[in-house]
Amino acid sequence: MSKFAMYGKLTASPGKRDELVLILLEASRSLKDMAGCELYIINESVDDPDTIWVTELWSDGEAHAGSLKNEEVLAVIQRARPLIAGAEQVRLRPVGGKGIDV
Amino acid sequence: MSKFAMYGKLTASPGKRDELVLILLEASRSLKDMAGCELYIINESVDDPDTIWVTELWSDGEAHAGSLKNEEVLAVIQRARPLIAGAEQVRLRPVGGKGIDV
């Protein structure tokens, strides 16, 4: 099965990006021990003050889907929700490059 | 200096995505030994048959800018150009997460 990658775009409510980043950093700590999660990098947009992009790489799509049932992850989503004005996904199929084994 | 990340969106000319992916994979091999380049992952969009997204992570913005002066990289850009119908960038400031040291 091929790996699964995703860019998750989150638009924070105005002025709430820093707070949302902190919650996502906390979420990433609960992913440290999750074997199927290879990358979960939180980025601030350089050009848009309310936007966060999360770079995700998973061993396969099932690992990603499974993570969304994890209790810690669900608790973080609940806390983050009031700070989020919008969310979009870019779904990706990694084919190779530097920093990935496919 | 903080790290620099980027999503590079490339729209291939119709039917040319596979060919463009091969050129980018070749480019990524010439980046293997470039110290400032931490990630250069080539992804096919799941939802758009002409789209490629490249996930880039660099030690800093200067390392990225420097790579664009590298002869091998320039040669690859020249070869790829006729296959590219459009290009966009999302410029990012990584703040932490899994798979990155900041």
TrEMBL record, chains A, B:
The lineage of its organism: Bacteria, Bacillati, Bacillota, Bacilli, Bacillales. GO terms for molecular function: monooxygenase activity. This is Quinol monooxygenase YgiN. InterPro entries: ABM_dom (IPR007138), Dimeric_a/b-barrel (IPR011008). The keyword Zinc-finger does not apply. It comes from the Bacteria. Residues 4-92 form the ABM domain. Keywords: Monooxygenase, Oxidoreductase.
